[in-house]
Amino acid sequence: MTRPPPSHGALPGALAREEWVLVSDVHLNEILAPDERAAAPPGWWEYKSRHASQDADLAAFLAAIDQRRPAWFSRSVLVFNGDTFDFDTCFSGPPERDVPAEGLPPTVDGSVFKMSRILGDHPGFVAALARFLARDNRVVFVLGNHDRELHFPEVQELLRQEVAAAAPPGLGAAVAAAITFEPWFIYVPDTLYAEHGNQYDATCSYRDVLDPSVPPDREHALELETPFGSLLGRHTLCRLGTFNPYNDESFILSLGGYFAHWRRFYFGRRPFFRAYFAAAWFGLRELRDRRRRQLAGRSARAAAPAPQRAAAPEPTPEPEGVAQTPAYRAYAEAKGVAPAFVARQLRLSSTPIVDRLRLLLHEVWVDRFAVMLTALAVLVAGIALVRQWYQVLILLMLLPAIFFVMRMMGRGSLALQERARWGLVAESIAESLRVPVVAFGHSHRPERRPLTRGGRYYNLGSWAPVLPSDGGSTLARARRYLVVRPDANGRVHVVFARWGS
């Protein structure tokens, strides 16, 4: 594979005999038990059904890694590049606790319960991962936006314990030690850079990717920041269960598409628009409340000791300033990159949409519904007041204008628009670090493109649940994996393939 000129860092000897295998967006979620499925409406939450589970495919894939690895390599490092677990679609809770419709909040206790539930519902995956690690392999879980609750040490420890308990006798401690977690990115000098990619998506980015915590107050325990996409999805999916949340083509629809979906699944059966507006209202309220608490906590920590009047939360610091904080300096040093590179990545990251109120309202269709209601009111008033034939013509002339305005306002999801620049972000990373392979996930859309200075950018697709209704969609073809093999001569060999093809 063509590669950029070598960087100043040499590949560590301990890594020279390791191959790297990457997958992304597995989205293991809770599986509904028979009694839970019976309580849900017909066709509800199909992505949580046992037949949609990925356990069998993942077990076969983990076994195949060892079988296909060339003898020159001593072991494999498996990278789950974010969103391996889906905490945002776990709506259950302990029987003795009053659980909101959207599930437990991202507190330590809530996240531990959700991790326990997900692992308990996927014993095949847990057992296969334990066998894989018992063969002297390693695994790295990169944190995405749907499994950011792995940020809690208690959740990480639970995962280690469950996988270790499934290991062959005597190997539990070694298996637990082979599991590591990565909050942002993986960097292997001269070989590989990988991160989930949600930081370049305003609907799913974090204000502080290393510390997304929301300080506690009198009414709330310590929580994690939840991006717009995850939080609104959590509030929506618990009320609208007919979408597959992992398939963009299932839920990012035109106005006509939503109308057709409503007529097919909801008309005369259950509320749709009322459920959507309830989800949008509760989601926006929770987003703004967490933003207020998070910024207030940051302002309190940065405030001078002298008493001051209460002030509005301070704006987010510039990326260069954030990159110079002790946490980011230590992270850059641990990764073997310059603080300037970290500052550059922060500068390339998208400002969370919760800080951009106009775009926030646009994403939940508030502006479009307001225009539609205004247009409807004008038309109704016009029809009531019409007296002459030319007044009818004037009203008819308004229809194309209304249609044009609605088309201009509905130019697609912001997340889809921002993905267009990911290739440029990959170019910047490859140029800065001189790596031949840059890999993201997050979009669920496999992609491979050459980089200007040599090497390639890859999007790893998704191993999320695929439903029969998803046949022919991008998601149905997205189950990919990337194998990166550096050799003794400094070359990097790459395989990008579709599992099961």
Range of strand content: 5-15%
CATH architecture of the largest domain, please? 4-Layer Sandwich
Q: How are strands sequenced across the largest beta sheet?
A: 4-3-2-1-12-13
Low-confidence stretches: 2-16, 306-314
Descriptive labels:
five-stranded mixed beta sheet; disordered N terminus; single chain; alpha/beta; 18 helices; 501 residues; six-stranded mixed beta sheet; 2 domains; 13 strands; Purple Acid Phosphatase, chain A, domain 2
How would the blueprint of this fold be written?
Elements (H helix, E strand, L loop, with lengths): L17 E6 L10 H6 L15 H14 L6 E7 L26 H14 L1 H12 L3 E5 L10 H13 L6 H6 L1 E4 L2 E4 L3 E4 L17 E2 L8 E2 L3 H10 L10 H4 L3 H11 L7 H30 L16 H5 L2 H10 L3 H10 L8 H7 L2 H20 L3 H21 L4 H5 L3 H12 L3 E4 L6 E4 L5 E4 L20 E7 L5 E7 L3
Parallel strand pairs: 1-2, 2-3, 3-4, 6-9, 9-11
Antiparallel strand pairs: 1-12, 5-6, 7-8, 10-11, 12-13
Please explain how this structure is put together.
- The chain is α/β, with parallel strands linked by helices.
- It has two domains: 384 residues, 4-Layer Sandwich (Purple Acid Phosphatase, chain A, domain 2), CATH 3.60.21.10; 45 residues.
- It contains 18 helices and 13 strands.
- The strands form three sheets. The protein has a six-stranded mixed beta sheet with strand order 4-3-2-1-12-13. Strands 5-6-9-11-10 form a five-stranded mixed beta sheet, with helices on one face.
- Strand 10 and strand 11 form a beta hairpin.
- The longest helix has 30 residues.
- The N terminus is likely disordered.
